Amino acid sequence: MPPDHPYALGLMGGSKVRHAESEPVASGGGYFAHAQKPLHILVFLLPLLVAYELGAILYLSGEGGQPNTIAAWGMLARFFEMFGAFGFHLPAALLVTVLLVWHLLQRDPWTVRLPVLVGMAMEACVWTVPLTILLILLQSVLGGGDPTPAQVQTAAPEALRELPWQAKLTISAGAGLYEELLFRMIAIAAIHAVLVDIMRLSGWAGGVIAVTVSAGAFAVYHSQSGGPAMGLSSLVPYFVAGLYFGGLYLARGFGLVVAVHFLYDVVALMVSGQNSPNNPGVALGLLFG
Fold it and tell me: What is the pTM of this model?
Protein backbone atom coordinates (compact mmCIF):
# COMPACT_ATOMS: atom_id res chain seq x y z
CA MET A 1 0.00 0.00 0.00
CA PRO A 2 1.22 3.53 -0.66
CA PRO A 3 2.14 5.56 2.45
CA ASP A 4 -0.93 7.79 2.23
CA HIS A 5 -3.33 4.87 1.89
CA PRO A 6 -6.03 5.37 4.55
CA TYR A 7 -5.48 1.85 5.86
CA ALA A 8 -1.70 1.98 5.66
CA LEU A 9 -1.49 5.07 7.85
CA GLY A 10 -4.94 6.63 8.01
CA LEU A 11 -6.24 3.82 10.19
CA MET A 12 -3.52 4.52 12.73
CA GLY A 13 -5.45 7.65 13.59
CA GLY A 14 -8.78 6.24 12.54
CA SER A 15 -10.86 7.30 9.56
CA LYS A 16 -14.09 6.46 7.85
CA VAL A 17 -13.85 3.62 5.39
CA ARG A 18 -13.08 5.13 2.02
CA HIS A 19 -11.14 4.39 -1.17
CA ALA A 20 -7.39 4.90 -1.51
CA GLU A 21 -7.85 7.67 -4.04
CA SER A 22 -9.70 9.91 -1.60
CA GLU A 23 -7.89 12.65 0.28
CA PRO A 24 -6.65 11.76 3.80
CA VAL A 25 -8.85 12.91 6.66
CA ALA A 26 -5.94 14.79 8.25
CA SER A 27 -5.68 17.18 5.30
CA GLY A 28 -8.76 19.19 6.36
CA GLY A 29 -8.66 22.35 8.46
CA GLY A 30 -11.49 21.98 10.99
CA TYR A 31 -11.50 20.53 14.49
CA PHE A 32 -12.77 17.10 13.41
CA ALA A 33 -9.90 16.74 10.94
CA HIS A 34 -7.22 18.16 13.24
CA ALA A 35 -8.25 15.77 16.03
CA GLN A 36 -7.13 12.91 13.76
CA LYS A 37 -3.78 14.43 12.82
CA PRO A 38 -0.88 12.35 14.17
CA LEU A 39 0.87 15.31 15.81
CA HIS A 40 -2.23 16.29 17.75
CA ILE A 41 -2.77 12.66 18.72
CA LEU A 42 0.81 12.38 19.98
CA VAL A 43 0.67 15.57 22.04
CA PHE A 44 -2.79 14.66 23.37
CA LEU A 45 -1.64 11.20 24.50
CA LEU A 46 1.80 12.18 25.76
CA PRO A 47 0.64 12.83 29.37
CA LEU A 48 -0.95 9.35 29.50
CA LEU A 49 2.16 7.80 28.02
CA VAL A 50 4.46 9.42 30.57
CA ALA A 51 2.05 8.69 33.42
CA TYR A 52 1.99 4.99 32.57
CA GLU A 53 5.73 4.61 32.05
CA LEU A 54 6.47 6.25 35.41
CA GLY A 55 3.46 4.86 37.25
CA ALA A 56 4.23 1.27 36.29
CA ILE A 57 7.62 1.60 37.96
CA LEU A 58 6.41 3.53 41.01
CA TYR A 59 3.06 1.86 41.75
CA LEU A 60 2.93 -1.50 39.95
CA SER A 61 6.31 -2.96 40.88
CA GLY A 62 6.22 -6.63 41.85
CA GLU A 63 8.87 -8.87 43.29
CA GLY A 64 12.39 -7.73 42.51
CA GLY A 65 11.09 -4.34 41.39
CA GLN A 66 9.78 -5.71 38.08
CA PRO A 67 6.58 -3.82 37.13
CA ASN A 68 3.31 -5.76 36.80
CA THR A 69 2.37 -4.33 33.44
CA ILE A 70 -0.72 -4.40 31.24
CA ALA A 71 -0.94 -7.74 29.41
CA ALA A 72 -1.16 -6.01 26.02
CA TRP A 73 2.08 -4.21 26.82
CA GLY A 74 3.64 -7.59 27.61
CA MET A 75 2.52 -9.00 24.26
CA LEU A 76 4.18 -6.11 22.43
CA ALA A 77 7.34 -6.47 24.51
CA ARG A 78 7.55 -10.21 23.72
CA PHE A 79 7.28 -9.37 20.02
CA PHE A 80 10.37 -7.18 20.34
CA GLU A 81 12.15 -9.93 22.28
CA MET A 82 11.69 -12.29 19.33
CA PHE A 83 14.10 -10.02 17.45
CA GLY A 84 16.52 -9.66 20.33
CA ALA A 85 15.31 -6.25 21.48
CA PHE A 86 14.76 -5.73 25.18
CA GLY A 87 13.68 -2.70 27.17
CA PHE A 88 10.79 -1.59 29.35
CA HIS A 89 10.06 1.48 27.22
CA LEU A 90 10.06 -0.22 23.80
CA PRO A 91 6.24 -0.36 23.39
CA ALA A 92 6.04 3.34 24.23
CA ALA A 93 8.84 4.05 21.76
CA LEU A 94 6.91 2.11 19.11
CA LEU A 95 3.80 4.22 19.61
CA VAL A 96 5.70 7.51 19.50
CA THR A 97 7.69 6.42 16.44
CA VAL A 98 4.58 5.37 14.51
CA LEU A 99 2.88 8.71 15.13
CA LEU A 100 5.98 10.72 14.24
CA VAL A 101 6.62 8.76 11.04
CA TRP A 102 2.96 9.13 10.07
CA HIS A 103 3.22 12.89 10.69
CA LEU A 104 6.35 13.15 8.53
CA LEU A 105 4.82 11.14 5.70
CA GLN A 106 1.76 13.39 5.64
CA ARG A 107 4.02 16.46 5.55
CA ASP A 108 1.83 18.33 8.01
CA PRO A 109 3.19 21.48 9.72
CA TRP A 110 4.67 21.17 13.22
CA THR A 111 1.83 23.22 14.68
CA VAL A 112 -0.23 22.11 17.67
CA ARG A 113 -3.51 23.89 18.31
CA LEU A 114 -4.48 24.07 21.98
CA PRO A 115 -8.23 24.40 21.26
CA VAL A 116 -8.05 21.09 19.37
CA LEU A 117 -6.50 19.34 22.40
CA VAL A 118 -9.14 20.80 24.71
CA GLY A 119 -11.85 19.76 22.28
CA MET A 120 -10.48 16.21 22.16
CA ALA A 121 -10.61 15.96 25.95
CA MET A 122 -14.20 17.20 26.00
CA GLU A 123 -15.24 14.93 23.14
CA ALA A 124 -13.69 11.92 24.89
CA CYS A 125 -15.84 12.63 27.95
CA VAL A 126 -18.94 12.76 25.74
CA TRP A 127 -18.17 9.42 24.05
CA THR A 128 -17.56 7.76 27.44
CA VAL A 129 -21.15 8.32 28.56
CA PRO A 130 -22.98 6.12 25.99
CA LEU A 131 -20.39 3.37 26.46
CA THR A 132 -21.01 3.35 30.21
CA ILE A 133 -24.79 3.33 29.78
CA LEU A 134 -24.59 0.57 27.16
CA LEU A 135 -22.50 -1.69 29.38
CA ILE A 136 -24.72 -1.06 32.40
CA LEU A 137 -27.76 -2.13 30.36
CA LEU A 138 -25.96 -5.20 29.04
CA GLN A 139 -24.88 -6.24 32.51
CA SER A 140 -28.40 -5.85 33.88
CA VAL A 141 -29.87 -7.91 31.03
CA LEU A 142 -27.23 -10.65 30.83
CA GLY A 143 -26.46 -11.00 34.51
CA GLY A 144 -23.88 -13.68 35.20
CA GLY A 145 -20.84 -13.60 37.45
CA ASP A 146 -18.33 -10.84 37.89
CA PRO A 147 -16.28 -10.30 34.75
CA THR A 148 -12.55 -10.10 35.28
CA PRO A 149 -10.80 -6.77 35.87
CA ALA A 150 -8.11 -5.08 33.79
CA GLN A 151 -5.55 -7.37 32.26
CA VAL A 152 -2.40 -6.89 34.31
CA GLN A 153 0.43 -9.38 34.05
CA THR A 154 1.04 -11.51 37.18
CA ALA A 155 -1.67 -9.69 39.16
CA ALA A 156 -4.63 -11.69 40.53
CA PRO A 157 -8.00 -10.20 39.52
CA GLU A 158 -9.05 -9.77 43.15
CA ALA A 159 -5.85 -7.88 43.95
CA LEU A 160 -6.74 -5.07 41.54
CA ARG A 161 -9.66 -4.04 43.75
CA GLU A 162 -7.28 -3.34 46.61
CA LEU A 163 -4.75 -1.25 44.68
CA PRO A 164 -4.23 2.42 45.61
CA TRP A 165 -5.74 5.05 43.37
CA GLN A 166 -2.37 5.88 41.82
CA ALA A 167 -2.00 2.28 40.64
CA LYS A 168 -5.53 2.24 39.25
CA LEU A 169 -4.88 5.41 37.26
CA THR A 170 -1.68 3.83 35.94
CA ILE A 171 -3.53 0.67 34.88
CA SER A 172 -6.23 2.75 33.19
CA ALA A 173 -3.64 4.72 31.23
CA GLY A 174 -1.79 1.58 30.15
CA ALA A 175 -4.96 -0.22 29.13
CA GLY A 176 -6.13 2.69 27.04
CA LEU A 177 -2.79 3.11 25.30
CA TYR A 178 -1.60 -0.42 24.68
CA GLU A 179 -4.85 -2.32 24.27
CA GLU A 180 -5.99 0.23 21.69
CA LEU A 181 -2.58 0.12 20.00
CA LEU A 182 -2.79 -3.68 19.77
CA PHE A 183 -6.48 -4.30 19.05
CA ARG A 184 -7.38 -1.19 17.07
CA MET A 185 -4.34 0.40 15.40
CA ILE A 186 -2.44 -2.80 14.64
CA ALA A 187 -5.17 -5.45 14.39
CA ILE A 188 -7.68 -3.48 12.33
CA ALA A 189 -5.04 -2.21 9.90
CA ALA A 190 -3.54 -5.69 9.46
CA ILE A 191 -6.90 -7.44 8.97
CA HIS A 192 -8.09 -4.76 6.57
CA ALA A 193 -4.88 -5.03 4.54
CA VAL A 194 -5.39 -8.78 4.12
CA LEU A 195 -9.08 -8.48 3.22
CA VAL A 196 -8.91 -5.47 0.91
CA ASP A 197 -5.40 -5.41 -0.56
CA ILE A 198 -4.95 -9.18 -0.90
CA MET A 199 -8.45 -10.68 -1.03
CA ARG A 200 -9.87 -7.64 -2.88
CA LEU A 201 -12.94 -7.11 -0.72
CA SER A 202 -14.49 -3.65 -0.69
CA GLY A 203 -13.14 -1.11 1.76
CA TRP A 204 -16.46 -0.99 3.60
CA ALA A 205 -16.66 -4.78 3.99
CA GLY A 206 -13.02 -4.95 5.04
CA GLY A 207 -13.58 -2.31 7.71
CA VAL A 208 -16.66 -4.01 9.15
CA ILE A 209 -14.98 -7.42 9.27
CA ALA A 210 -11.78 -5.97 10.73
CA VAL A 211 -13.67 -4.24 13.54
CA THR A 212 -15.68 -7.39 14.28
CA VAL A 213 -12.65 -9.70 14.34
CA SER A 214 -10.65 -7.30 16.51
CA ALA A 215 -13.60 -7.07 18.93
CA GLY A 216 -13.67 -10.86 19.17
CA ALA A 217 -9.94 -10.92 19.88
CA PHE A 218 -10.45 -8.20 22.49
CA ALA A 219 -13.04 -10.37 24.28
CA VAL A 220 -10.86 -13.49 24.17
CA TYR A 221 -7.90 -11.49 25.48
CA HIS A 222 -9.90 -10.42 28.52
CA SER A 223 -11.05 -13.99 29.17
CA GLN A 224 -7.44 -15.06 29.80
CA SER A 225 -7.22 -13.56 33.26
CA GLY A 226 -6.35 -16.60 35.28
CA GLY A 227 -9.68 -16.45 37.09
CA PRO A 228 -12.78 -18.65 36.68
CA ALA A 229 -13.71 -19.54 33.11
CA MET A 230 -15.99 -16.95 31.54
CA GLY A 231 -19.43 -17.77 30.23
CA LEU A 232 -20.97 -16.23 27.14
CA SER A 233 -22.83 -13.65 29.22
CA SER A 234 -19.51 -12.34 30.54
CA LEU A 235 -17.81 -12.29 27.14
CA VAL A 236 -20.57 -10.38 25.34
CA PRO A 237 -19.91 -7.04 27.11
CA TYR A 238 -16.23 -7.25 26.15
CA PHE A 239 -17.20 -7.95 22.54
CA VAL A 240 -19.69 -5.07 22.47
CA ALA A 241 -17.09 -2.77 24.01
CA GLY A 242 -14.66 -3.88 21.31
CA LEU A 243 -17.20 -3.03 18.61
CA TYR A 244 -17.76 0.37 20.19
CA PHE A 245 -14.05 1.10 20.35
CA GLY A 246 -13.53 -0.13 16.79
CA GLY A 247 -16.30 2.04 15.41
CA LEU A 248 -15.10 5.05 17.36
CA TYR A 249 -11.55 4.41 16.16
CA LEU A 250 -12.58 4.43 12.51
CA ALA A 251 -14.84 7.45 12.91
CA ARG A 252 -12.85 9.67 15.28
CA GLY A 253 -9.30 8.40 15.51
CA PHE A 254 -6.75 6.74 17.75
CA GLY A 255 -6.35 9.60 20.19
CA LEU A 256 -10.02 9.74 21.10
CA VAL A 257 -10.51 5.99 21.43
CA VAL A 258 -7.53 5.78 23.79
CA ALA A 259 -8.93 8.62 25.89
CA VAL A 260 -12.41 7.05 26.07
CA HIS A 261 -10.93 3.69 27.09
CA PHE A 262 -8.85 5.45 29.75
CA LEU A 263 -11.78 7.47 31.13
CA TYR A 264 -14.05 4.46 31.32
CA ASP A 265 -11.40 2.45 33.16
CA VAL A 266 -10.76 5.28 35.60
CA VAL A 267 -14.41 5.31 36.61
CA ALA A 268 -14.62 1.52 36.55
CA LEU A 269 -11.56 0.80 38.67
CA MET A 270 -12.28 3.58 41.12
CA VAL A 271 -15.86 2.40 41.64
CA SER A 272 -14.76 -1.23 41.97
CA GLY A 273 -12.59 -0.37 44.96
CA GLN A 274 -15.44 1.30 46.88
CA ASN A 275 -18.29 -1.21 46.56
CA SER A 276 -18.96 -4.84 47.28
CA PRO A 277 -18.24 -7.37 44.52
CA ASN A 278 -21.96 -8.11 44.20
CA ASN A 279 -22.86 -4.55 43.33
CA PRO A 280 -23.94 -4.33 39.66
CA GLY A 281 -21.88 -1.17 39.30
CA VAL A 282 -18.81 -3.10 40.36
CA ALA A 283 -19.57 -5.82 37.83
CA LEU A 284 -19.66 -3.11 35.19
CA GLY A 285 -16.51 -1.57 36.63
CA LEU A 286 -14.59 -4.79 36.17
CA LEU A 287 -15.60 -5.32 32.57
CA PHE A 288 -12.31 -4.52 30.94
CA GLY A 289 -8.95 -2.87 31.27
Answer: 0.83
